[in-house]
Specification:
This protein is mainly beta and 212 residues long. Helix content is 8%, strand content 48%. It folds into two domains: 57 residues, Hotdog Thioesterase (Thiol Ester Dehydrase, Chain A); 139 residues, Hotdog Thioesterase (Thiol Ester Dehydrase, Chain A).
């Protein structure tokens, strides 16, 4: 079977520490299944995920009409914004095609994981895509991160095929309304072309000034 849709709801801050995960098949089936999982820390749920997976059938395919990404650029990897901290950003190799970490607006970046999620375990195609899909609002930022929050409480990814290889392209853009909500959308691709799309609802709010 193949995961066709994945959604993660981020319920609260997820600590760097011990996490317990419980997963189940919520709707079993021979052709369609719904999977659910929860992650907890300190006795409190911190995230929930659900995914629809469908049976792989036949050899019929129709080419995606999503825009194909620009080719993988050679040269030195792109460095993220210095004010954005470290950790995840250093765990991913970034190669910019359009836009810039240092300037607002839509952006296209090729990425690959420098390390596996689990030591000595090869990441699956789904893991490679999902590890990058949550970066759409970050690479296509429109507001100064020093003055504004643009936090996504959820991520939804729809896939029409499995990714191939270690490189994943993220072509993202962000729209923000005056009411305080935003939406980041992205096209996700491998070296053979698009594999799906991602979307993130955004909370947009000014950061509180530090006490003097």
């Amino acid at each position: 079977m193949i995961i066709a849709r994945f959604t993660c709801e981020i319920l609260r801050a997820i600590p760097v520490g011990e996490i317990s995960v419980v997963a189940r098949v919520a709707r079993p089936g021979r052709s369609v299944e719904l999977l659910e999982a929860t992650a907890s820390a300190g006795g409190r749920e911190v995230a929930r995920a659900s995914a629809w997976r469908v049976l792989k059938t036949g050899d019929v395919s129709v080419e995606s009409r999503l825009p194909a990404p620009a080719g993988l650029p050679d040269g030195t990897p792109t460095r993220p914004h210095a004010d954005w901290g470290d950790g995840y950003l250093s765990a991913i190799e970034w190669r910019g095609v359009r836009g810039s970490f240092s300037a607002p607006g839509p952006a296209t970046v090729w990425t690959r994981m420098r390390y596996p999620l689990v030591p000595d375990e090869e990441p699956s195609p789904l893991e490679r895509v999902l590890a990058i899909a949550d970066s759409g609002n970050g690479v296509s930022w429109e507001l100064d991160i020093a003055r504004w929050h643009f936090i996504n409480p959820e991520l939804t990814v729809h896939l029409h095929r499995e990714a191939v290889g270690e490189w994943i392209c993220l072509d993202a853009q962000t729209a923000i309304a005056a009411a305080g909500a935003g939406l980041a959308t992205s096209v996700l691709s491998d070296l053979d072309g698009p594999v799906g799309v991602g979307a993130q609802s955004l909370l947009v709010a000014p950061r509180q000034a530090a006490a003097g």
